[in-house]
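SEQUENCE-TO-STRUCTURE ENTRY
===========================

Subject: a protein chain together with a token-level encoding of how that chain folds.

Sequence line: the amino acid chain in single-letter code, read from start to end.

Question of interest: how does this chain fold, as expressed in backbone structure tokens?
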Amino acid sequence: LPKGQSQAVFGLVTVQAEEVSEARPEQAERRPMDIVCVLDVSGSMGCDNKINDLKEAMRFIISESQPQDRLSIVAFQSFAERKIRLRRMDSQGKDEAMLETMRLNAGGGTSIAAGLDMGLAVLEGRRQRNSVSAILLLTDGQDHSTRHQLTALTQRAAKVCGLYAFGFGADHDADLLREISEQARTPYTFVENTSTVKDAFAGVVGGLSSIVAQKIELSLESKALLKEVNTPFEVQ
């Protein structure tokens, strides 16, 4: 540049975890997870086989769990109910989770807020915590009564866990679930039918199981004037 002139320079910063070598198998074992599945069992889930798709998704999640993982199931319609406590997915835990999944039936109104509130309470009340925590919200998103409460619940979740939304059925409220995902900074997944359930959940479950670090703080040092940082995360 000519002397006395300045020009803005844009930079991109990425963070990548160290690759785990096959020679270090002790690091290849994934971190144990605490997962709360918040399930929509309202009347609208009884249409177009959505409740059966939801059950198929739960069977996949349970089967993919390892003994060191813990899983809780919260079902909601107009109100929320904890079906199983947060418990380890050993053989007995998986049997209990599968049984409660089989018993799910669709009926009643819809309160996503009630389901998320109870799911968060499960994680907030833990005495011991696994390394990775997440709420999986499985719903068609057809909630016209409590959506105004969801922003506060999403902000509350950010302090505790990841929040992942899954939309069931062609008639699901994509705008609502996309809004939840954008606030939670997590992917939003559409589950079209039973044949796509495993693919839809494999990516998220695989992503959670490969997490190597959380709550990272990144420090930037620059000899030039740092004018602006564009990121959805908090900047100090």
In short: The helical segments are 25-28, 50-64, 91-102, 112-124, 150-158, 174-184, 197-209. The first strand starts at residue 33 and ends at 40.
